[in-house]
Amino acid sequence: MSVVTNTTTIGAIELPSRRNTELMLLGFAVVIPIFAYANVGLAIHGKLPPGMLVYGLGLALLAGVAHLVVRRFAKYADPLLLPLGILLNGLGLVLIWRLDQSERLQNLAKRAFGGFSESTPNQMLYTALGIALFSAVLLILKDHRTLQRFTYISMAGALVLLILPVIPGLGADVFGAKIWIRVAGFSIQPGEFAKIVIAVFFSGYLMVKRDALALASRRFMGLYLPRGRDLGPILVIWAMSLLILVFENDLGTSLLFFGMFVIMLYVATERTSWIVIGLLMSVAGAVVVGTTASHVKARVTAWLDPFACYSTSGACEQVGQSIMSFGSGGVLGAGWGQGNSDLIGFAANSDFIFSTVGEELGLTGVMAFLLLYGLIIERGARTALAARDPFGKLFAIGLSGAFAIQIFVVAGGVMGLIPLTGMTMPFLASGGSSVLANWALIGILIRISDTARRPAPAPAQSPDSEMTQVVRPS
Length: 474
What we know:
By secondary structure, the protein is mainly alpha-helical.
């Protein structure tokens, strides 16, 4: 006797897209900056700021447009990345507006330039352009793997972007660093975009060469040393970083590129020796350039003892004032609009905007902001783990690593942990290049996460599989 059992095939289970979760988080990401904006107005002027409604509606409109684009073109993307970007960008607008209200900064601008113009309207425009670029990335980049075709083209593009600031007549020297170009009256920082372009090259190159780079020829002091010919790529990147330091006096971009390459190299090869070699080479390069390049040497001197040259060096004065801002903030801070970080001068709303956070929101506010940044980095790393292709894994971890390094060098510089780098805090600082580049970075991570989280298509059904007879012995 036998038993006949009828079984039918079951299709793939539809996974939740988490877009409603993203929409709810976006509500908080818009409301929190509006409350902060109102708090600043009450603290400085004793009344609600007149542009509060326009600011709130504008931020909500930008968040809504970005959400609709993600809902339509990246249905399964990570639900945290967009709200985190909107929240940081919104709070950055509040911090910049708070510094625009400083009479000291207004008088300083009038003495130096003959007039004063607020940075907040421009920053709001840059934010709108950043959301537009974010949307364009999701609309145009249907699959991140298409970027792999442009591996060596991206290397050439990154080199061009890095060379532009040192071209006479095009580059601009701003406070000793040659990292800007001026085009049609606008200032652009090409290094902000170069970090994304060069991440494409690193990802494509390491995906092909990772097996060769993972080979070790000998063991020395517990480390597996790579073969001599495999040291070529890291030597080239090291030399390029030194050239950036020498010609552009830009410590931050050099650390960013070299650090990003070492992180991706370690992820691709799983060799601890690359980390050790990379750290030794970065220290050696920093020591050599720090003792020879005058601009970098001044920043190293200010880092070692900012109060020793407080009255003779502008770098020491800025670092000293920044350290005092963090110290006077205490645990809970002086409150929105109640600090004196505007004494730092023109860099208060760009390089040193994190000092305003430390003074007016205290250690609590600093940790909250670092936690928000940490969540973006964690979601990027989670996206890299979930990616199904090696190029996507390396690309996501490279972008996340670059973002993490930039946070470290900026926060470490204004806190006195490392020398100043001249880079800007992502989403917070005033400047269009940083906002545009970081929104493009968030857009790429969302595209990779959508591909990684999207359920695999169900296998095609065969007409014969609709009913299968299974005969079991009785």
